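Notes, Module 5: Reading structure tokens.

Key idea: the token line is not a picture. It is a compressed description, and you learn to read it the same way you learned to read a sequence, by spotting repeated patterns. We will look at two proteins. The first is printed below with its tokens.
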Amino acid sequence: PAISILLARDSALRSAAYLTAVYAAQWHFFVAAQTDMQFVVSAALVSIVVVTMFRVRIVAEVAGFVAEQEKLQAQKDLIESQMELNQEIKAFLPAEIYERVIDQRTRKKTTVLQAMDEALRPRLKTVACLLSDIRGFTQKSKDLHGFIYNGAIPNIRICTETVEAYRGIPRLIGDAVIAYFDDRSPETLIRDALACGFALIDANRQWNALTPPSENVRRFVILTFGEAVVGNIGGQDSSREITALGPPINLASRLDPVTKEPALAEILGPESLILSRTAAEAARFCFRDLHVVEISLVALGIDVRDFPEETSMFLVPCDAHNTALLSFQTESHNEEATSATDSKEYAQ
């Protein structure tokens, strides 16, 4: 009976009932053999109790195993849903903002919305601002299937990816790529912005070398520096607007039309980074050997709208000297930052 009970894998109640039926079926033979019935009853009760306890324990273990598997599956589903949510958030946020949101969630154990609200709360910060738009875009944009699809859109995507590679926060207004760099020391900001500006110029040069003339893109890259309010200036839903407001942004938008002045046509070129006075001062502070060319706007009879104090424009040529200097300084700075991070992680 015990072997058959083990093989049957029935419940505790059915196993006890089966064992009772076996003893009942043998009762006549116990009586005929003149067996002491007290022993038979005692053996029956003990065997029923043992089988019942054995079955209950097995059922409990099986139920515990199933519950543990369900718990693990629930945890797996939760992790997968969180990963999917993170990917959805990442698809709608600049890479730098996304990293800040994840950092908020990790450090403060907040919800996604709470982390986003905190990371995007408007703050006054020192920023470096880059602006670059496509020259002659209005005329060229009439060619929707040629210049727009094959030239402008891929070029804008390359510019956006370049900005994010240097931890910039990009924003697109038509064909113009605007980016700001914040949340770091002023020296680091100007390093990253200069390096990003050089990378944008180089990326655009490579793009034009690989595409037919009809799809070539001509850009100027303007760099300004100063204090601005950055973060979400819109609502808390789909109306979020991540941007920067302040003099550096406004000055960049005012310097852009200045670059179209006929008096500057022979001076400016797409191979130079255009800096405001404050940006040039910050660049010279970080890179004392940087080649910077000052252009007097007063001598050319050019005024910068709303910024009369901007009497000069500064060019940083993307020549071999400046490129090598900037690359060396940036790599050294990154190595120092990595070393400091490694030391901090080791200490923790």
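Here is the second protein, with the sequence above and the tokens below, as before.
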Amino acid sequence: MPRVAFEDIIKTYGKLTVLSHLDLAVDDGDFLVLLGPSGCGKTTLLNLLAGLLDVTAGRIMIGDRDVTDLDPKDRGLAMVFQSYALYPTKTVHGNLKFGLAASKLPKDEIEKRIAWAAKLLQIEPLLERKPAQLSGGQRQRVAIGRALVKNVDVFLFDEPLSNLDAKLRTEMRLEIKKLHSELNTTIVYVTHDQIEAMTMATKIAVMDAGVIQQFGTPDEIYERPANLFVAGFIGSPAMNLCPARLTVANGRVGAEAEGVVGLLDLSDYPFAEAPADGGRIILGLRPEHFGPIDKPLPDAAGVLELPVQYAERTGSDATAYLRTSDKLLAVRIDPGEVNAAVPGRPVKIGFLKGKANVFDAQSGRRM
């Protein structure tokens, strides 16, 4: 499979700069997810790759070919859109065949590809139905099949699951991931849904305001967010971000969070530069890295004492929200502890050693 590379990409609309000097490389066979909030530039970047928009400056490479100025049909890509974009008057078979009509392929080769895609996507019984007779998940399978039959090296997905309900989204995530595993093709996938990104991607590019904030594997982005934007965007419940002050004395480094009783030990934190006593930081604490309520946590980095605001249970998960001076601290707890999390009651809870994230309060960058 070819490598896809964006080199110093700029996209402007008049005086508005949507993408600014963007560099990104997608390795052979990678499943890259462009992740970010609405308006961050992820769909614009995908459309530049597809050839649906013109690049203002920079170039796009697919393998050793410069495709920056090529027509979409000459780029060797196939795209699955957010809307299914199926032809309502054609059957499933007709929709799958339509994209191959101008390819001048032999008829038996076209039928062979349609049969292969239908079997792979488990839509063989649906070939004579029209889109109105299909469910949302079935329509999306047909849309994916229409891309698959083109037999290209790179597939583009533009938020393909956003029109499906929660159950179907889960099913289709598994289907798309299985397809990637079986075909070993390069996929570039756009979404604002972090669950889709974390479960499907081999690499994620987190975007905001036309800039890639961090690029890496899902684990790297989750465990070591590069800045406050990534830290706050990835995770559900989101990472707790607490203003704090560093304390450095006798070779020990700690942090005192505003509105929280207790000191957090950061002596084992891998600071890029030597921390300064009194330095202003933002502590990043994942909800799942806290221990049980009112029970000692072996080798804890520190113990916090805060009143409960409220707690909620969602099946196998539960979250307690503890009140600091000006915000709520989300703490993932065992569902059996929900009854112990009584609103207004002060509780003690430990934080796991080595799990804190530290960001510079001024620049927002990871320290």
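Summary for the second protein:
- Residues 2 and 63 are 4 Å apart (CA to CA).
- The mean pLDDT is 89.
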